[in-house]
């Protein structure tokens, strides 16, 4: 056993380490559990759940781009009810904090989902996805609109005492304004960032490579942007930040923490190397040893500018 | 499912532009079944970022074989590997062909690189079943008959074998199998699989096809690879997890 | 000679082909002329010029990121006067349309620069950089503010009859709103996109890799984002678009044109392969032949959605 | 300045972790001068995206040599090249050392990989001038004396030669050059170059150093490589174009 303290705290949420698995990149945990011991992970965030099951977009849903990928899954998910009945039992077997990510097309639906999930004690926190660019009736207008983000935060806050994390859209000029609204409306933390709006076309058919036309860009390509968003929030708003975007290895994790993240989420990397989250933990510990850092939480926002 | 770094032991251009890569990977070789696939990371860099899916082409002892052409960056890098360079393999993935069904004659229908999964299938079936292979391509150079048995070929331009597509060739030959309990195994472009499905359903023939689509993870966590099911319509099947092999009755191709 | 018509028209600006060299990535043309025949290029855009010479930021100004690079040059430039006196003579020797890119920290400065340059007949058009994220007193507030962009466009329009192109910031939620304002304020075309705000930190020193902390992300990493911005503008606003962002080869050029660009600019690629613009021209012609397209301008916005 | 695709002909690990790469590139070999550099694209993919600058280490007939250690992704890829793999070279770049000055004794002061440009300089000067080389590193493994003449070494940890840094060693030896017209050629980490500048200016010694900084283009179009000039202060010099070799009097290191 090592004597480095990797644990972190986000509002009242205590995690054994800062490595979380990002929404939409681990399903409900079943498949990735074949590669890693979920009990070693900081937290797992579910695929965005909506009130009713969603079939998602027709194919093609994904394509690769330079150092990144575009996706427009269309929030395919089993819906809150099936999740509670069929997915929670598997997750109950593990001692890993479960964070439910919720996506909806109206404030009422966000509130209703939260209410239905709130009783389930396995769920340790909520992450509200106001920023999915692929759902036409929801998504964009919420995430890029200060008033809407404030309202969702406030109304969801009213129905749960569990830690409330708002996952922010990067497709805005000044993300710290959104973090400020979240704070002012009773949110406990923000996740930054969700995917950036992008597209790709086949030059021979002249058709979009993704059936939905517009899609979300993730992967290492977006890391510099994500880091800038986290730093911007950290410099301007006093709220815990979960850093997300293009993490490929432990160095990226440290970089996010230095610019202000209390914890991080690993997304696209899970597709490439599902064992990476565990490897990163070891390397993170080694880094702390080498740098003589006793507790990883000391690193948060420790940049020297 | 496991992830292993395995050394390349041989790369052969078995015919113009078609490569066969021999990889030493005993654990994969032991577990994998025909129709399953591997998701391969061809480079340690971010370019290409995602793994690339490849059918298991053949297995021989501790060695596995991939068959591919140079399509884009990933396959280009793969084709340029030197002996003892490694590839990072995630697999075995998917369900593979169902070989427990009741049949005495296996019929392979393959278009272009759709031949890839069939050397392994042929190896496993050849001692117990009759096997007939119908193999097609746009032109002579696209027809891959490597390690297949009882082959008849078809080309769109008539440069080799039957002048027409491989499904037409297969249908033309159907009468000769009248007395057999046949099962068809298909792989190739979607248009071909659609035609094959039509013929098989019309003639009430048991048929499984290996489908293809863009993939990220290959094991069910990204939801990137939907395929429409024939029956239940409130959710898509996943090519990587529920397939890539489907009975033609079960999916809309 | 081929019979493919590569020429394109942007407002009253006629270019022999759609390949332009982007501001800040070719200086004032001198160095790149050692690699390519400038007479074959569609147009050359100068490094952003300001009224007075600017020394630019202290090192370090650039760093590489996955499939991209960050820069914070700080608009180092010789200033309008020296430009006219010392740089124009070299450019006069070539038969290549010269577009002057202007950056300023106030509406007045934009107007003054334009006025000073307007008389010089070698200059065929102006590109107004309202979106450079690296200048603290100018830059961001202009590019991300609809009113400011409208005002700059209107005031600069008043002092020149030459084609007026506004180079838009991608760091906004809905870039088409800015294109609309440009159109409404008398601008002739928009360039999309400038760099995205990003950052990178050294995890051992905890210091920013770029002295300016925040920097602009360019290169293939941003291509999907740039394509989405061009498409968004093309779908919503009837204004010529110059597509920019991550172009690495002829396929990328075609992709930009298909989603709505009338011409494109090549930026970061010039650093990697200064001969690329010429190679791209040949390949573009071959593509047109193969696709039986007589005039490349037919391709603009020819997507099938 | 030109861009040429040139084949790698040999890769040697001349000492632990230090590679010498021999490349067949006749046109570059003919044009390039000591102190100039090449900007090399190590991969056709976007990873790494930018070229990587390397000093010309040596020239022998039609062959050029690079010296490097594995620092990051680019140098890793470079070190893994196989014989006849090509590298894409842009060069020659920069100004190189000024060898027309009035001196009879050349003194090389190099720290770590700062030795890279000096085998070539030594080759060109050795028949006409006296050459003395002071070579340092943190530890024994970091001291690179390859193809240098009259070498004295220094290490910070005392594991080889003089116990201290190479500039101290050089200063200690200064008295022995009292009767000579010396010129110092320096290359190494910035801290070392600063110290060297101080010593040379104090003793009024003519000294040129090859500087290093992050670069994108390498030929003056990106403005990515500023260095502060001693004199005029309204503009930066560019390391790639105005350097990389500067007289220590002219720049603030
Ligand atoms: C289950 C399965 C088995 C396969 N078996 C083989 C095989 O044995 N031999 C072989 O040569 N090829 C096979 N393929 C196809 C192979 O994966 C692609 O040829 C390979 O990904 C090309 O990669 P690249 O980097 O060379 O090309 P790129 O130009 O980079 O293109 C690959 C990219 O295109 C996308 N893509 C891949 N396939 C499709 C598709 N069908 N539709 C839309 N987009 C797609 C992916 O997102 C991928 O990122 C198989 C595919 C699948 C899904
Ligand atoms: C004129 C010149 C000559 C050189 N000669 C040699 C040589 O002969 N042998 C040798 O081994 N190395 C030399 N270097 C350094 C060499 O360029 C780097 O070691 C190389 O870029 C490392 O690339 P990488 O991909 O392995 O490392 P990475 O980890 O990818 O780092 C390289 C990246 O760091 C940045 N970078 C590079 N150098 C610096 C710097 N000094 N300060 C800040 N950032 C930097 C660049 O933007 C580059 O993208 C020289 C550099 C210059 C400028
Ligand atoms: C295929 C895919 C599906 C995703 N689905 C969701 C989702 O349902 N809800 C959500 O909040 N974020 C979703 N995301 C966004 C990720 O959680 C993450 O914010 C983003 O991918 C950036 O991180 P990365 O670069 O590490 O992947 C998805 C991302 C990908 C790639
Ligand atoms: C080093 C560098 C300097 C730049 N300087 C300017 C500038 O002065 N003015 C401007 O409008 N854009 C400037 N740009 C932005 C480019 O013109 C272009 O919009 C951007 O880099 C995206 O294109 P690319 O991905 O092809 O590089 C600069 C870009 C780079 C990389
Ligand atoms: S490829 Fe990821 S779910 Fe099928
Ligand atoms: S490296 Fe581009 S100007 Fe020096």
Automatic annotation (TrEMBL), chains A, C:
The pathway where this protein functions is: Pyrimidine metabolism; UMP biosynthesis via de novo pathway
Could you tell me which CDD domains the record lists for this protein? DHOD_1B_like
Query: What subcellular locations does the record give?
Result: Cytoplasm
Positions that bind FMN: 23, 47-48, 101, 129, 167, 193, 219, 245-246, 267-268
Gene Ontology cellular-component annotations:
cytoplasm
Q: What is its main location?
A: cytoplasm
Q: Which NCBIfam families match?
A: PRK07259.1, pyrD_sub1_fam
What's the protein name? Dihydroorotate dehydrogenase
Q: Tell me the classification of the organism that encodes this protein.
A: Bacteria, Pseudomonadati, Ignavibacteriota, Ignavibacteria, Ignavibacteriales
Automatic annotation (TrEMBL), chains B, D:
Residues that coordinate or bind FAD: 52-55, 74-75
UniProt record, GO biological process: pyrimidine nucleotide biosynthetic process
What does the similarity note say? Belongs to the PyrK family.
| PANTHER family linked | DIHYDROOROTATE DEHYDROGENASE B (NAD(+)), ELECTRON TRANSFER SUBUNIT, DIHYDROOROTATE DEHYDROGENASE B (NAD(+)), ELECTRON TRANSFER SUBUNIT-RELATED
Question: Binding of [2Fe-2S] cluster: at which residues?
Answer: 217, 222, 225, 240
In the UniProt record, does the keyword Ligase occur?
A: no
Provide the cofactor list for this protein: FAD; [2Fe-2S] cluster
Pinpoint the FAD-binding FR-type domain residues: 1-99
The protein's UniProt keywords, in alphabetical order, are:
2Fe-2S, Electron transport, FAD, Flavoprotein, Iron, Iron-sulfur, Metal-binding, Transport
| Presence of the UniProt keyword Electron transport in the record | yes
Tell me the SUPFAM superfamilies matching this sequence: Ferredoxin reductase-like, C-terminal NADP-linked domain, Riboflavin synthase domain-like
GO terms of molecular function: 2 iron, 2 sulfur cluster binding; flavin adenine dinucleotide binding; metal ion binding; oxidoreductase activity
Cofactor binding: number and manner:
Binds 1 FAD per subunit. Binds 1 [2Fe-2S] cluster per subunit.
Q: What is this protein called?
A: Dihydroorotate dehydrogenase electron transfer subunit
PROSITE patterns recorded? FAD_FR (PS51384)
